[in-house]
Amino acid sequence: MDWLxxxxxxxxxxxxxxxxRDLDPRLxxxxxxxxxxxxxxxxxWWRLALVGLLLLVTACSGLPWRIWRRTLPLLLALSLxxxxxxxxxxxxGADPVAENRxxxxxxxxxxxxxxxxxxxxxxxxxxGPLPFGPLVITRRSAELGLNSATLLxxxxxxxxxxxxxxxxxxLVWGLSWCIAxxxxxxxxxxxxxxxxxxxxxxxxxxxxxxxxxxxSVATRSVNLRKLGLQGSLALVLALGERLLANVLxxxxxxxxxxxxxxxxxxxxxxxxxxxxxxxxxQWLGAVGLALLLGLRxxxxxx
Length: 302
What we know:
Helix content is 62%, strand content 5%. It is mainly alpha-helical.
């Protein structure tokens, strides 16, 4: 039942031998934002190239195999499943346009005629006693499946790599450095950074509480089929309520302990005391980011 601890999603893993850990947190934030924003309005080849780049960075990152041997195949399988489902779902077409002139004078052609070419047709499909029509893959549905699968993998894996290789203190320092100009407008940057640091620290506690609830349900041998739809829904809502109550109780206990010990928030500038190592690596990361943005502007629509 300790599978949540064995799959370190969103948790920093300490260690040495990885160049990603030595990279500037601000650069890692910029790279993550680039992975999140550059797929917007991009072509399929650019999306596939981002997935390949993420896989290459993961393979060459120097992270131990045991860290991502369980998360990466699971994420790939989930992305492929979402892509296949989006591919076979009906993509739909444009609504018919009302003709303002007689058909004898003007003949309208569908605007998406080039988008509805059939690439593959299977069928009809028989699933038990229920017959289904043929499974048709059009150009639009293929693009929808590819975009869904690549976007899901890019968003989750890029953020996971950032959290795996960046301590919460360094991440808060980098984010506070980015939003430091907002302090002139009266935005409490220090308080926001401290709140983010506490939120990152509470992620393992939330996973532990969720795992304890699952363990309690498993030890009671709850049969969802006997409960029915209404009983299962009531059980899920009760578990969600208990999870929220436990997390809030943990947060209250942490706040009381912090106040009892005379705790105070630390300015984000004091979180990163050691100088950043390997200056050549920082320059290489900045040049690589500029090259990525240039390629997106030049070849992103391909």
